[in-house]
Amino acid sequence: MKALVFHGPGRTAWEDVPDPALEDASDAVVRVDAVTLCGTDLHIVKGDVPEVAPGTVLGHEAVGEVVEAGSEVRGVRPGDRVLVSCISPCGRCPSCRGARYGQCRGGGGWVLGHLVDGTQAEFVRVPFADMSLHPLPSALDSQDAVLLADIYPTAYEVGVLNGRVSPGDTVVVVGAGPVGLAAVTAAGLYSPARVIAVDLDDARLAAARALGADAVARADEQPERLVDDLTAGTGADVAIEAVGIPATFELCTRTVRPGGHVANVGVHGKPAALHLEDLWIKDITITTGLVDTSSTPRLLAMMSAGRLPAGDLITHRFPLAAMEEAYEVFSRAAETGALKVVLGQDRHDAVLPA
């Protein structure tokens, strides 16, 4: 089969690799119909994730069809159309029993495209299939559903739930990339008084408006003043950090009110200053986290009911064989306007209600 293989920092190739096979009775093999790219993939290609060994097939998000299932798999069978989650939980360790799947200690967690071959391929072996695969309703488009593999659960769990967004809150989302935009949408499910999006890119701020942000601010134009104006000087109840650089984390700590929450979603590659000399007296809660995907069934139900926009986040679509071109477009998002880049072809004939 063809797959996107990591060969070391700055080097990848769409090339022939052996077809995947079952390695454990709890595995399944899935034919990939839709796959997307993630900012984490770009970090890997740059060499920022040293755990990824050269020769690894990248990718941790997909929709496809089960073609083979191990003898212990009970939840899916060949022919089923499924969502491949970015997290593969064993389901048995103490972390998994507490629904902290991202912290799995039984050989799972974030493994696809990280510790084992991933989804940016024509076929993928999925460990712990009963916990990692979610059957899809027939009417849900594959290229929309793939957004439930990572960005929506991440924004919802690590941003909105960890931040404890509540009705009437003022929510600031710093960073209007794919995960930040998903956080804007997910925060809106909780009826906040207002959602404010902050970014440096005017096109992304326009996308945030279209997805439900009540106000937007450029990060280089003192967004703290807008937050103060809209909250009568109180500050935001929740600040969601969705970039992963020191400046955006520190901006969140400056915009949040006393007693508020800072929910860090962004993946940080450098230390960020924690100004305890200012924060200690403000009773602020700061949370971090890797997504668990425990919310995936709930989000799947909401998307099926039309409560989560999907296609609005997809700016570029490619055939699977154009993987290298898709990476080029996604890596130059400031020039290309790329948000979510989706590859593949939906080979499923949707059955729509009469």
Automatic annotation (TrEMBL):
The keyword Lipid biosynthesis does not apply. Pfam families: ADH_N, ADH_zinc_N. Its cofactor is Zn(2+). It comes from the Bacteria. Residues 10-343 form the Enoyl reductase (ER) domain. The keyword Metal-binding applies. This is Zinc-dependent alcohol dehydrogenase family protein. It comes from Streptomyces sanyensis. The lineage of its organism: Bacteria, Bacillati, Actinomycetota, Actinomycetes, Kitasatosporales.
